[in-house]
Each structure stands twice: as C-alpha cells, then as structure tokens.
Amino acid sequence: MLMHEESAAKDVAAARGGLSHIPAQADVEAGSVFDAKAASHQLLELAAVERVICVDDWYAEKEDNGEGVLTALAEGSLLASDREKIAEIIPDVALLSDPAAPMELVLDEVRDAWASLESSKRDAVRQIVDDRLGPEGIGSPGEEDEPAAACLRGLLADSREFLTFSLSDWRKQRTALLADGKSTLILFDRDFSREGASQTAGEEEISALLHDAPESWRIGLLTHTVSPDDAEVEAWRTLSQQFEADSSRFLVIAKGRLSVTADGFPRMLKLTLLAPALERLQDGLAQAVSGTWADAIEKVGLINPYTLEAALNGDRLTDGTWGPETLLRIATAFTQDSVRAKLRADRTVHMSSELVTSLSRVKLPSASNPDRVRQELADIERLEYFESADHLTELHFPLEVGDVFAFQKFGVKPHQFEKRRNARGRGENGAWELQRSGAVHHMILLAQPCDLAVRADGKRGNGLEFVRLAPLKSPAKGRSITQPGGGVATSFDLPFFFEESGGGVEVKLSQQHYVPLTALDMCILSASGEGSMSAEQEMPHHVLPNWQERFEILREWVTKQVEAYRLMEPHGMTGRAADQVTAALTGTVASPRLDALISLSQSAIAYGIKRVGRLREPYRSALLSRMAQRDSRDAFDPSLIDKTNA
C-alpha cells in the first residue's frame, strides 16, 4: 500500500504543478483539427512522465545480408531463368545454374558472395526477385516499422527526455535506467527477430519489467500483429494471464495507430498512463467493501429477534416483500455510509481519482470503434435500470409497477389446439409448454402499487380485474435514447433496454392496453414466468402467504372456466366462434395483443405473455409520475389559426 501511495503522490503532485505549463488544447468537439502532438505532450505532463524510452529492432544496426534473396531461393519462389540471371550478375556462384545442386550449398555460395558484392549488383539481384514476387516480395527487414518509429518520435521526442534502443542496447542499459528514479514510459516492439531474438521477445521483456520496474514506470507493447480496435483488448487479456503480474501497468497498442494516423495514439497513451491509477481505485473500493460488508453482516447478526421479527413481518410481508430482501436492505443501510467513509479516508483513492480527473481534461477525438466499450458499459448500466427475470420468476415476486412483459402469439388457434399433439407437452421443469410464433412485443405495467397489492385473503381490496400496460417501442430512426424520461408528455424514455444492442425504448403512454390481471398473476405463480395455470397444478415453492391464497383462488377460477368451455363444446363450432368463446372466458375480448388458449386435455388456461424483467427505482416511480401527469393534463380548444398557415 505504501508503494501505491508514493506512486500516486508523484502522479498527482506533477498533475497539480504542471497545469500552468500545459498548452491550450483545441476543442475537438467543435470540429477543430486535432493536434495529436499537443495532446500527447499534455498527457505526459499531467502524468509526471520524465522520460520516454522506445525499444524496437528498427533502431538496431541495419545490415544488408541479402536475407530477402536467400529466402526467395530457399522457398523455391524463383524460376530457373531467374537463377540464371542472378548467376550472370554473381559469376562466382556457379551452382545457381545447376538445378540439381543441393539448395544448402547454393545458399552458402550466395551468402559468401553477397558480403563482397557491390551495391549496384545487389540492387540488380533484388530487382530480379522483385520482378518475380512483386514489389512486396522482399525489402529491408523492418521497413514496416519505419513510419511508426518516425511518427512516435514526432509525437513524443520534443516533450521530454526521449531515448531509443535496440533490444541489445536496452539490455545493456536496463539496470542503470531502472535505478535512476525517473518516472518513465517505456514502449516495446513485440517482434525482435531482426536482431536474432524471438518474435515475442518484447512480451518477455515486459513480463520481467512488471516484476522489476518501479511503480512510476508505465509500459506499452507496440505491435503490428493486432488491429487498432478490439484486438488490442483481447491481446492484453491473453498476455495478462501469461504474465501473472500486475496487468494494470501495461497495455497493448497497435502500431496502426501510428503508421496510419496519429489521432488514435493519444487515447491509448492516456489509457497506458491511467491504468495503474484505475487499478488503485478498484483496489481501494474492493478493500472498503469487503471489510464493510463483513461489519454489516455482523451488525445484522446483532439485531435482537424482537426487532428482526418486526422488520420481516408487518406491512412488508403484507405488501409481498421477500424476507431476505428486507435483510439485504438493512445490510445495505449499514454498509453504504461506511464504505463512503473508508473511501474518503483513503489517501491513495483520493490521489488516483485526482489523476484520473486531471487527464480527463485532455480533449481527445472519439474512439474509432466505440461499439465494444459502449456494449460493456451498457451491460453495466442496464443493471441499474432493470432487474432480470431470473430471481423474479424463481422467487415468485409479486406484481409491481414497472414489471416488463413479453407478448407473443400462439402457433395455433384455440379451436385447433386439441387437434395438434405437437402443440402441447411438458418442459424440463414440468411446466406446460406451447408453441409460439411471430414477433415479440414488450409492455410495461402501469398501476398504483397499492392497487396491485394482494391482501391476506388472496384478493385485492379494490376488486381490480384489468390493469393498464404501455408498449415499449424502439425510437424513430436516427434518434438515440441515452437518458431516462424524455421531454414528451405522452412517452417515457428507457435507455439500455435491449441486452444485445444496448439500445433504448420509448414507453408509449398514449397507446395503453388493458389486460386481465389473471394473466399477470399467472406469470407470478408459474415456474417459467409465463401466464399459464392448470387446475391440477401444485403450489410452487417460495410463494408468499398472501399469494398462496391468491394461487388457490386462481386455480379454482381455472377449473371453473375450463368446465364452462367443455360444456360449450367449442370444437363443434364453426368459424371464429371458438376464438370468441375463449376470449370471453379468459377476459381477453378487449386485449387484441394478448392471445389465450383453453386446453381440455390439460385442464389449463394459457396466455401469450411472460414476465421478463422489472424497472428499478427510482425510474419506475418517475414513470408512474409521468403517467399521472399525462392522465391529469389540461385540454384546450384548438387554435383558430391552422398550423399550416401560421
């Protein structure tokens, strides 16, 4: 912890002391030309980097040993006529004209002759190989590194001490550089085969540095082998597992950010400089939470049985609150303030946060491929907005405003149902399964919580039979939902609704539908979250007392409706009579979006609806307020002046 504090202190001290020396940064968002060099200088200044070191085989002595020509010969890429032309230029290599000569001997002769060959003749030989293999066939090893190396020097060399090393030179200077106490950003190439080392020598050097380098060192792996998008993240994750060290101290940076355009490099530079501070923030939170939760659980354990019994019963039980949920609420109350107090008292957290804030002042262009980052953030933020259906279904949580339901049509009509054996069956959990087809439509429950509450007798005090739901629809093309609410009185925006895309939806308050509460109640009491119930169904586990009574009432109602359906002999009816009888008995006459089926063989009723989630607080209360505002809005006579003539 002390080493972390010292490193964070150096970072923040420089951030505070260097602000007056930072050049003015162009407003990227206003459309100004982005100055990658100025941004890079500013980031290094704020992060207190005193020195930049680049280790690349591009900086090694360049020897012309004819490697490209030798490779073309060894791989058999040249024709006999090509070899004869080369033999005319290098008459000392007689074996070139002999197709039966062993290739090892040919290569030895060419290699020996190449060392004393005039540069003009070397160029002539290369031209023969180029003519056969194309302009990309051979060339000086490491030429692809030249644009990246030049760009890197242009971005960073003027800002502070800037050193370049080959791998062999770095190894000679390594001990002295690690010991001089200067905060350093070091960037390694990945492949050093040009110096006779391995293609992963850069990774091996970084792995050693993660154990040996001071806390003030930041490390980057510059490589052509990954593209400047998601591949950088995947390569970093893979190497993090291999290194078995503090992976926050290094990042992978694609050289394409330098050789193609320099605009993307400052963003990766910023991440490289910030990674240790972000790691310290995570560690600080983890330590604060882990210790505090233990304290909170201990405090919950000290609550006497009299107080705890009162907390778990009374109004909370009547309203349908699951007992462990109340315990979680108590533990959270004990925890939240304690965690904040520990974070406020943690000097490392403060210093790391200050560095993050300082570097955030540097304006950078948007990421070239933000989809992956946005998806990960959307997955996190989605948890803040919506509860998943899993625990709602398994624990049979009672209805609540903000419950989200999926509507889908059945694959068969009521009068056809009993004739199709493949339309009925039992699932793995014993639930009644039905084929569904067509698009899935989502709706959200709009009702006062007290109207939805089931009392001790299993009934609702207001005798409510139907309830309002509003459809959730994707926004108009070109409109992106990023904030909850929205300014239109007839709708309510909900971001991050769709799990795969992270896209949001609009709650269309002006397009409300009324559905029978029996359908929603069945979703609560089924093992799958679907709106179905059999007259022979057993009471599921984890159902709260009031809803146990509700279960018995619903099962009795199902028995009654199935018997009424049987007596009407719907299978003998013509036309849509069976559909109309089903709609009347299931209460879906005024619910065109809601399918219903009555099965005589299963003694069951099924609705084409399933609970798939719940909107969390405070958003569901805000949604309810928006609905109330819409319902109570004033009406005015239309203007005498037509809008088209205004």
The beta-strand count equals 17
The coarse silhouette is elongated
| Structural class estimated from helices and strands | alpha+beta
Percentage of residues in DSSP E strands: 5-15%
Structure description:
By secondary structure, this protein is an alpha+beta fold. It has 24 helices and 17 strands. Strands 6, 7, 10, 11, 12, 13, 14, 15, 16 and 17 form a 10-stranded antiparallel sheet that branches. It starts with a helix and ends in a 15-residue tail after the last helix.
Would you kindly provide a brief summary of this structure?
It contains 24 helices and 17 strands. The protein is α+β, with helices and mostly antiparallel strands and 646 residues long.
Describe the protein's topology.
Layout (H helix, E strand, L loop, with lengths): L1 H16 L18 H11 L4 E5 L11 H8 L5 H10 L13 H12 L4 H15 L11 H12 L4 E5 L1 H13 L4 E6 L11 H12 L4 E7 L6 H14 L6 E5 L1 H4 L5 H38 L2 H8 L2 H4 L4 H23 L1 H13 L11 H15 E3 H6 L8 E8 L3 H4 L7 E2 L5 E2 L2 E11 L2 H4 L13 E8 L17 E4 L10 E4 L4 E4 H9 L4 E5 L10 H23 L9 H10 L9 E4 L4 E12 L3 H13 L15
Parallel strand pairs: 1-2, 1-3, 3-4, 4-5
Antiparallel strand pairs: 6-17, 7-10, 7-17, 8-9, 10-11, 11-13, 11-14, 12-13, 15-17, 16-17
Helix pairs in contact: 1-16, 2-12, 4-6, 12-15, 12-16, 21-22
